[in-house]
């Protein structure tokens, strides 16, 4: 398989991160998650992290120039990748077009109701970043990661008061990218209600097909 440049689109909680992690294991492609990179910047207390934190805590988008500046070099240096959480605005998508052509955009579609239900019960491992859901995909031992034994935590922006805003921000700023990539003939829709296994095999067949 040649190295592909892939974008995973979809609302928060649709399963982009979960799928991206599996795809990386299977394909060896580079995983670029702007959310993960930002959380790392915040944890390390960098200037960028300090600037981004207030937006993230409210569930708002971090300004385009900060995001593009942060991701540009990583995209330029890669011959294939899975973008997860970027682009999130038309301005970001236009900037990306100028950096490199994209092979495939996969939109994982999920309703508002389901997004809110899933994000409220999402937990993440502090050690390895593996993603759990207390209802649909709980860990074997409460509060501990199956893979590395790390502590599971709830992201600050997965709190109920922030979740609804994140969905509204998605609708206003990110959903227009569906049309953007449709017009360019790059978009494939995937039903986010399917099981993670089904979604994964669908995405794999798109990548290898
Ligand atoms: P995520 O982990 O993808 O849900 O991202 C968590 C938060 O990081 C978002 O709610 C935004 O505040 C910020 N963020 C991540 N990616 C972007 C992006 N491409 N543009 C703007 N803000 C972003």
Structure description:
By secondary structure, the chain is an alpha/beta fold. It folds into two domains: 5-112 and 167-208, P-loop containing nucleotide triphosphate hydrolases (Rossmann fold), CATH 3.40.50.300; 121-158, no CATH class. 49% of the residues lie in helices and 16% in strands. The chain contains nine helices and eight strands. The strands form two sheets. It has a five-stranded parallel β-sheet, with helices on both faces. A three-stranded antiparallel β-sheet has the order 6-5-7. Strand 5 and strand 6 (131-133) form a beta hairpin. Helix 1 crosses helix 9 and helix 2 (34-44) crosses helix 3 (47-58). The termini are close together. The model has no long low-confidence stretch (mean pLDDT 95). Bound molecules: adenosine monophosphate (AMP). Adenosine monophosphate (AMP) is lined by residues 12, 34-35, 38, 55-56, 59-62, 67, 85-86, 88, 92, 157, 166.
> How does the major sheet shape up?
5 strands, parallel
Q: Looking at the structure, what is the overall shape? A: globular
Give the strand order of the largest sheet, numbering strands 1, 2, ... along the chain: 2-3-1-4-8
Any guess at the CATH architecture of the largest domain?
3-Layer(aba) Sandwich
Task: List the bound ligands.
Answer: adenosine monophosphate
What's the pLDDT, averaged over the residues? 95
Please give the domain count: 2
> What's the level 1 CATH class of the largest domain?
Alpha Beta
Considering the protein shown, what is the CATH homologous superfamily of the largest domain? P-loop containing nucleotide triphosphate hydrolases
CA radius of gyration is 16 Å
- CATH topology tier name of the largest domain: Rossmann fold
Total strands: the figure is 8
The CA-CA distance between the termini, in Å, is 9 Å
Strand percentage, roughly? 15-25%
| Number of separate helices | 9
* Class derived from helix and strand content: alpha/beta
The helicity comes to 40-55%
Which ranges are low-confidence, i.e. pLDDT below 50, for 5 or more consecutive residues? Answer: none
Order of helices and strands: EHEHHHEHEHEEEHHEH
């Amino acid at each position: 398989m040649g190295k592909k440049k892939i974008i995973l689109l979809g609302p928060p909680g649709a399963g982009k991160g979960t799928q991206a992690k599996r795809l990386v294991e299977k394909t060896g492609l580079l995983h670029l998650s702007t959310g993960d990179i930002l959380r790392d910047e915040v944890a390390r207390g960098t200037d960028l992290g300090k600037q981004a934190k207030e937006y993230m805590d409210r569930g708002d988008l971090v300004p385009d120039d900060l995001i593009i500046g942060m991701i540009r070099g990583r995209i330029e240096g890669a011959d294939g990748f899975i973008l997860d959480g970027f682009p999130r605005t038309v301005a970001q998508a236009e900037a990306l077009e100028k950096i490199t052509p994209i092979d495939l955009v996969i939109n994982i579609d999920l309703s508002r109701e389901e997004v809110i239900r899933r994000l409220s019960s999402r937990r993440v491992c502090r050690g390895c970043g593996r993603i759990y859901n207390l209802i649909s995909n709980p860990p074997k031992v409460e509060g501990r990661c199956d893979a590395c034994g790390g502590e599971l935590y709830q992201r600050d922006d997965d709190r109920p008061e922030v979740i609804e805003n994140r969905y509204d921000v998605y609708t206003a700023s990110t959903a227009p990218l569906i049309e953007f990539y449709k017009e360019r003939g790059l978009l494939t829709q995937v039903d986010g209600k399917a099981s993670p296994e089904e979604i994964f095999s669908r995405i794999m067949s798109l990548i290898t097909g």
